[in-house]
Design a protein that fits this description.
heterodimer; A: OB fold (Dihydrolipoamide Acetyltransferase, E2P); 5-stranded mixed β-barrel; 7 strands; B: alpha+beta; 4-stranded antiparallel β-sheet; 11 strands; globular
Chain lengths: 147, 659
């Protein structure tokens, strides 16, 4: 093979692999990303049941109910709207009423979120950024409240 | 007094760095040996002053000097001594100080060990190194000074984040930084070569040990971080595709590619331009990693505190070095002569294949990590890109790489024989088939991923050793001859085999955990029990204990297998008074390389506890594999021919000044 042919093989191979990677990335991005919304967004959009979504806000005080078999039901609020969340399993160490929380899961026909992941902040000094933004949008956020 | 001394030492280091950034470069330009030699002294002096500064901060922590703001924020007088040491870097300011300490250490290393480097190259490398150092000293002094005093010292500190109060903090960050920052040497060498407009095989020989050392540290650092997250966060996961984890994975992928392309450059004088580009990219990814983690654009345990000026400052450093490096590359790289022709099927070809897939995989991680940030910046829409994305993109790119890996060392330079290599790998194919058959026999035909993964892992593990087995004449020859031959083999050949074997070990661990891990989440009252994977755990009861700066609720479990008691597990929930924060301390029981993992949830009024129990088969292999990879790197590093300052090639004509 000449130098030129060798170079062509090399370039062809690289372009092939890059194209494959690009195809994989585009396919996965269309399929496996999850959008984040505040309770107000959800109340306005009425997502179709089965949509995967991440919601963030505060755990509404007095809304946490624990059932049998490690089931937990609580409401996520941004002060304007509340969204019910159902979860089965152990909630994080810092999951508390009135504290920031992020839940990810699928919407059910009754409008509640069947969460498979519940995340709480991991330091008392700050909140998940997504929660802060959701609260800012609803006007319930005071600067310097908790960094 | 001590904090002021530390502050002053850091300012002195900055002054030295500024001198070192310009003077040797001027010296290199006018070929003035005195000016060039200055870099050696300043590099060592810089290290001494940064070390003093670091020691000063450590002294403040150990003596709980609460007049220093940084100590107040992150320490507590009741904290065990070991955490007083580690909390020095368990915060933003201190961790940046560790960053520059390691940067100065590497600079001093080049100054001290690079005796037979060509004078101009050494001067330029140290000057570029000092540019990086200067920018980070400025960053610390202007935006993140750890030595700031408080006008009124409080009586007690606010304690270190409890998640960080763990031996993991002693090991993970220093190793990770050794890796991140170590790649700065490759970067400095690349920039120096571009400034000189000249590069040769000897260049790769000088760069490789440093890159290898950085790579080893990064490999174990990432593995350690992964194990830490595994036992500390209580979810039993070893990799979350969290942006912060990706930030360390990207330089690792690029650095691995760099190690391999440097081999081609050293042995065959080919792929020069590519190697230079990779050296720049690897360190750029380290800087991007530092930016992602330190700037607060991401929310995570690693983002200790957020301050927009810091983010902007690091971004400026990032733009300067990456932009400057790439511009210099575009301008000067065409000057470098290409050498060494090779056929697509050859050792060089295999290493190009390795580079292609590693960098593409790195690219997908890059897209997955930065796409959400970019999208939010542009449209304001928030998305999360998680494991499903990476499983779909990263994994398919790694499979061809793993299949090709055993072939590489079996192909000859210039022109290889693929069919011959495949024949020599018959033992590896055999092992793969045995693995696949074993999975089918043991677990039946459920899915194809598990048997395929096991087959692949066996193929990689056995395939990695084929080269060594053949060269030592294992099996046909008597053992004494084999032993003599094994000792005579170059250490770098052993290094390759061992490191590749380590990759196989990690793959085996990942496949087993992914396919056969099992879990149960239950609520138990005392005397009730739960079974999983042949183990039976009885909940005996709760007890309260108090530690130095926390109180904990410990649940006691007796573990039985086949009715016989084999031990006990005591997961706990700790409440740290200073921060009113609690953490779960999972309990792990290691059975060979598998683990039982028990973590505690909420405790009920009636004395019941919620527990999460996992059985993780062969999970330890994931991290042991990384340790094996590191050992492979160490073997390779100890090879005489690669040791810093290998005399022969250094004395060749390449060292004379050009023109």
């Amino acid at each position: 093979m000449t130098r030129k042919q060798r170079r062509l093989v090399l370039i062809g191979g690289s372009v092939g692999v890059l194209a494959l990677a690009l195809a994989l990335v585009l396919f996965s991005l269309s399929d496996s990303i999850v959008f984040f919304n505040s309770p107000t967004d959800i109340a306005e959009k009425h997502p179709t049941p089965g949509t995967r979504m991440r919601i963030g806000g505060l755990v509404k005080p007095g809304s946490v109910e624990r059932g049998d078999d490690m089931r937990v039901r609580f409401e996520v609020t941004d002060g304007n709207h509340d969204i019910a969340v159902r979860y089965r399993g152990i909630v994080p160490d810092l999951f508390r009423e009135g504290q920031g929380v992020v839940a990810e899961g699928k919407f059910e026909p009754d409008g509640a979120l069947a969460a498979d992941t519940v995340l709480a902040k991991h330091d008392e000094r700050y909140m998940p950024r997504e929660v802060v933004d959701a609260l800012k949008k609803s006007g319930r956020w005071q600067e310097g409240e908790a960094k | 007094m001590i904090p002021e001394l530390g502050h002053y030492a850091l300012v002195l280091a900055l002054a030295l760095a500024v001198v070192q950034a310009f003077v040797p470069m001027i010296g290199a330009f006018y070929r003035d040996t005195t000016l060039m030699r200055l870099a050696t002294s300043t590099a060592i002096a810089q290290f001494v002053f940064v070390a003093l500064s670091f020691a000063a901060l450590t002294a403040c922590y150990v003596t709980s000097d609460f007049s220093v703001a940084n100590v107040v924020e992150n320490s507590h007088s009741m904290m065990p001594l070991v955490y007083k040491f580690t909390s020095v870097w368990g915060n933003h300011e201190g961790s940046m100080l560790l960053w520059v300490l390691i940067l100065a250490l590497f600079g001093a290393g080049v100054a001290a060990f690079g005796r037979n480097l060509p004078a101009t190259l050494k001067a330029l490398v140290l000057a570029v190194q000092s540019w990086v150092a200067t920018s980070f000293y400025l960053f610390i002094l202007l935006t993140s000074n750890p030595f700031l005093r408080l006008p009124q010292a409080p009586f007690e500190g606010r304690d270190l984040n409890p998640i960080l109060q763990d031996p993991g903090l002693a090991i993970h960050p220093p190793l990770l930084y050794l890796g991140y920052v170590g790649f700065s040497i490759a970067f400095s060498f690349a920039i120096a070569a571009l400034i000189e407009g000249r590069i040769d095989a000897a260049w790769a020989r000088w760069v490789r040990p440093w890159t290898l050392a950085a790579w080893m540290a990064l490999t174990v650092g990432i593995a350690m971080g992964s194990y830490w997250a595994y036992y500390e966060l209580g979810w039993g996961g070893y990799w979350f595709w969290d942006p912060v984890e990706n930030a360390s994975l990207m330089p690792w992928l690029a650095g691995t590619a760099l190690l391999h392309s440097a081999v081609v450059m050293e042995k065959r004088n080919a792929l020069k331009i590519w190697t230079i580009l990779l050296a720049i990219l690897t360190f750029s990814l380290s800087l991007i990693g530092t930016f992602l983690v330190r700037s607060g654009v991401l929310t995570s345990v690693h983002a200790f505190a957020t301050d927009p000026t810091r983010g902007v400052f690091i971004l400026a450093i990032l733009v300067f070095f990456i932009g400057g490096g790439l511009t210099l590359f575009a301008w000067r790289a065409p000057l470098l002569k290409q050498g060494g022709l090779f056929a697509p099927i050859s050792r060089e070809g295999a290493l190009v294949f390795n580079n292609l897939f590693l960098t593409t995989a790195c690219l997908t991680v890059f897209v997955g990590t930065l796409y959400p940030l970019a999208l939010e910046a542009v449209t304001g829409e928030k998305i999360s890109v998680g494991a499903p994305f990476f499983n779909l993109t990263f994994a398919p790119l790694f499979v061809p790489l793993l299949i090709a890996m055993p072939f590489g060392p079996l192909l000859a330079w210039k022109r290889g024989d693929l069919y011959g290599a495949a024949q020599r790998l018959f033992a590896a194919f055999g092992a793969a088939l045995v693995g696949i058959a074993a999975v089918f026999v043991a677990h039946g035909a459920h899915g194809v991923l598990a048997p395929f993964g096991i087959g692949l892992a066996f193929f990689v593990m056995v395939g990695s050793l084929v080269d060594i087995a053949e060269r030592t004449g294992l099996f046909p020859l008597p053992l004494t001859t084999v032993k003599a031959r094994a000792l005579g083999l170059p250490r770098s050949a052993w290094g390759t085999a061992v490191a590749h074997f380590g990759v196989g070990v990690t793959v085996l661990g990942i496949v087993c955990v992914t396919s056969w891990a099992s879990e149960r989440i239950v609520s138990l009252k005392p005397t009730q029990h739960v079974s999983l994977a042949g183990y039976d755990l009885t909940f005996d009861g709760l007890a309260e204990r108090s530690g130095p700066n926390f109180r904990e609720m410990v649940a006691h479990f007796t573990v039985r297998r086949g009715g016989v008691i084999i031990g006990s597990m005591d997961p706990a929930k700790r409440t740290f008074t200073a921060r009113a924060m609690s953490t779960s301390e999972a309990s792990l029981m290691t059975r060979r390389v598998s683990q039982l993992y028990l973590s505690l949830g909420d405790t009920g009024e009636d004395g019941s506890v919620a527990v999460r129990l996992y059985h993780k088969p062969l999970v330890l292999l994931i991290w042991l594999g990384a340790v094996v990879m590191m050992l492979g790197g160490a073997l390779s590093l100890s090879d005489r021919r690669l040791r810093v300052g290998a005399p022969k090639p250094a004395a060749k004509s390449a060292l004379q000044p050009a023109e």
